[in-house]
Design brief:
The structure holds 2 protein chains of 2 kinds. Chain A is α/β, with parallel strands linked by helices. Helix content of chain A is 33%, strand content 21%. Chain B has a single domain, classed as Phosphoenolpyruvate-binding domains (TIM Barrel, Alpha-Beta Barrel), CATH 3.20.20. In chain B, β5, α5 and β6 form a beta-alpha-beta unit. In chain B, α1 packs parallel to α2 and α3 runs parallel beside α4. The radius of gyration of chain B is 18 Å and the shape is globular. β11 of chain A pairs antiparallel with β8 of chain B.
């Protein structure tokens, strides 16, 4: 197989077609419920749309990966079972799972179904990844965004499955699948409900002095001057005070995007089979632009040419970008 | 059967002296049945106190407590992989609680416990792990009562223990990045163990002055102490066999006494709640997760 397969976000049927047309090797998407980690209003697929999406992608040589990457709370498992059954019926190429119960149920009910391990499973060591491979026949692991490229290369030599890494988009700071910050502030769980900073709990509050407070539930996540653009309130991108920092500071991380455009050849050399672009909540125009740019870059690298980085760098223009943990251990 | 009271692993970077003193008093005075020992959050801390652990374990056992080793929640480095493998070899015959899938791999096929970082949210996951030798499960702290009840039924059918956290700060997130080091302009590798300065965690306050979260190295915790004391009398019938107290910089012997008395029915939930409030933690209590509400909230029990 080729290294550097492009895995692209499809938050809607229109985005799926856009991503496929722009050169995605595969798209990932979910149903309109808690079975996937982007359970946002206006996103995702009805069963009919999923069936049509799979047909559209397959007719053009692209794969469809079904995100079933949340953790069913006891008593609600049936929803995940039904989603998996639908996925099998529609012929999705792989299911992206995080919960051991979900993986085990699919493995038993559908032994031939290809499974990928979601980043939400937080498997970051060879032993953890091998455990999932041995128990559930996982064929590919989506790595947490916490390893350096040399660490990924060392890991690749020790595990019997493919590796997928995030290369572009929103940069989560917490270990995925182990974060209850949203639930602490709002009563909706990232793991069980598939939401992070749900829009229904977000408030942009104009203060008397003209400044803007962004809030999640009962908590102020950040404050902006009258002339500043207020960002979306995500707890791990907010500003807080602590005794040694009485000016507000980004306690976890600044609002910043991951962009590994310059590291694609290094990642391919390290043994990364697939590049994941984050952004099922993004517009079709964004998807077209990002997928086209990375398609051209990967094709250039495969042809032994220098990729045109300017287009990729421009994608985050106006917003700060980072190479996160991939570049150096000092990120930690 | 009487519910067990357990003491979770110390999440903070307490000095070796503090740990020895803390466990000496727990061994002699605390009404807990099981004590989980070991470093779960940051492998860099372990060298400061791990040499003392065998003696602490013996002391606790001499006090009638059962000792279980807790494994690291996050495993990245060679030394963390080795430490986890060594712990799971279980050469001293004590039990191990897995907090990472790497530990599960080492423990498969032998009796072991599954810790709160393992994301056991449903019956299918519990059934799968029980078939691999897991005999005791501590559920994620964000699980609502409605789901715990379903898990209780499943646990009974499987004949495994079921534990929930009933006291102490909730673990809300872990990261590869150390936020204690970051606050002080350092990185994880150059941290100089600054987290030791905050034995009950480093508070984060919103820009308008509301206390919100607490940082403990790579871990983010609730500002509030979870307390499910008023619900303890219902938990036994739900199938919960063990109640976990998380260590805080408070009188944990007194905390254990109150929970024991309520679990045994010697003291009513209301009276116990008044006793707990009288301990004067200076930290708000919360029960939102249990009720399926925002975790920070403390919701009055419908009477």
């Amino acid at each position: 197989m080729k290294y550097g397969e492009l895995i692209c976000p499809a938050g809607t049927p229109a985005a799926l077609r856009t991503a496929v047309d722009a050169g995605a090797d595969a798209v990932y998407c979910g149903f309109q419920n808690a079975t996937n980690a982007r359970n946002f209003p206006g996103l995702n697929f009805t069963p009919d749309e999923m069936q049509e999406g799979v047909a559209y992608a397959h007719a053009r040589g692209a794969k469809v990966l079904l995100a079933l990457n949340t953790f069913p709370p006891a008593g609600k498992f049936g929803l995940w079972r039904e989603a998996a059954d639908l996925g099998v019926r529609f012929g999705v190429d792989a299911m992206i799972v995080a919960d051991m119960g979900v993986a085990d149920v699919i493995r038993n009910a559908h032994p031939d179904q290809r499974l990928h391990l979601s980043v939400q499973a937080a498997a970051s060591s060879p032993e953890a990844i091998c455990y999932y491979v041995e128990e559930f026949d996982i064929r590919r692991v989506v790595l947490p965004r916490i390893l350096t490229v040399p660490e990924i290369k060392a890991l690749a030599a020790e595990i019997p499955c493919e590796i997928e890494t995030f290369i572009f988009g929103n940069h989560g700071l917490m270990v995925e699948g182990r974060c209850s910050l949203t639930n602490y502030a709002t009563g909706l769980s990232t793991n069980m409900d598939g939401v992070c900073s749900p829009a229904g709990d977000v408030e942009y509050r104009r203060e008397a002095d003209g400044s803007m407070s962004t809030r999640l539930g009962a908590f102020t996540i950040d404050k902006f001057g009258a002339e500043e653009t207020a960002g979306y309130p995500t707890i791990c991108k907010g500003r807080y005070r602590t005794p040694c920092r009485d000016e507000g500071y980004y306690a976890f991380e600044e609002p910043i995007s991951l962009n590994l455009a310059r590291m694609l050849p290094d990642l391919m050399n390290a043994g990364v089979h697939a590049f994941k672009i984050e952004g099922r909540q993004r517009s079709r125009a964004y998807v077209r632009q990002v997928v086209s740019a990375f398609r051209a870059a990967v094709d250039a690298i495969r042809a032994g040419q220098e990729p045109l980085l300017a287009d990729l760098v421009a994608l985050t223009e106006g917003q700060k970008e980072t190479q996160g943990a991939f570049k150096t251990k000092t990120w930690r | 059967m009487t519910q067990q009271l357990t003491l979770g692993p110390i999440p903070f970077h307490w000095s070796a002296d503090m740990r020895r003193d803390f466990y000496a008093r727990i061994a002699d005075e605390a009404e807990v049945d099981t004590v989980y020992l070991g470093e779960v959050i940051c492998s860099k801390r372990a060298p400061f106190f791990e040499a003392d652990l065998p003696e602490i374990a013996e002391r606790l056992e001499a006090g009638g407590k059962r000792v279980v080793w807790s494994s690291l929640a996050e495993i990245l480095l060679k030394r963390e992989r080795k430490a986890t493998e060594g712990l799971c070899a279980g050469e001293d015959g004590r039990g191990v609680e897995a907090n990472n899938a790497a530990a599960l791999r080492h423990l498969a096929g032998q009796p072991h416990r599954v810790g709160p970082f393992m994301n056991v949210y449903n019956e299918e996951t519990m059934r799968f792990l029980a078939a691999k030798g897991a005999n005791h499960f501590t559920l994620p702290v964000e699980m609502p009562a409605t789901s715990v009840e379903v898990m209780g039924t499943a646990a009974r059918a499987l004949g495994v223990g079921l534990e929930i956290q009933v006291f102490g700060r909730a673990s809300l997130a872990v990261s590869a990045r150390c936020y204690h080091a970051r606050a002080h302009g350092r990185t994880k590798d150059s941290c100089l163990f600054v987290c030791e300065e905050d034995p009950d965690g480093m508070p984060l306050t919103t820009l308008d002055g509301t206390e919100f979260l607490v940082v403990n190295g790579i871990q983010t915790m609730s500002r509030t102490y979870v307390s499910l004391l008023e619900f303890v009398p219902q938990t036994a019938a739900m199938g919960v066999t063990a109640l976990r107290l998380m260590p805080q910089m408070q009188d944990m012997v007194a905390v254990a006494g109150v929970f024991r008395a309520v679990a045994d029915g010697r003291v009513s939930a209301d009276e116990g709640t008044a006793q707990l409030d009288a301990l004067g933690f200076g930290v708000p209590l919360s029960n939102g997760f249990w009720l399926g509400e925002a975790g920070y909230r403390r919701i009055a029990r419908a009477s």
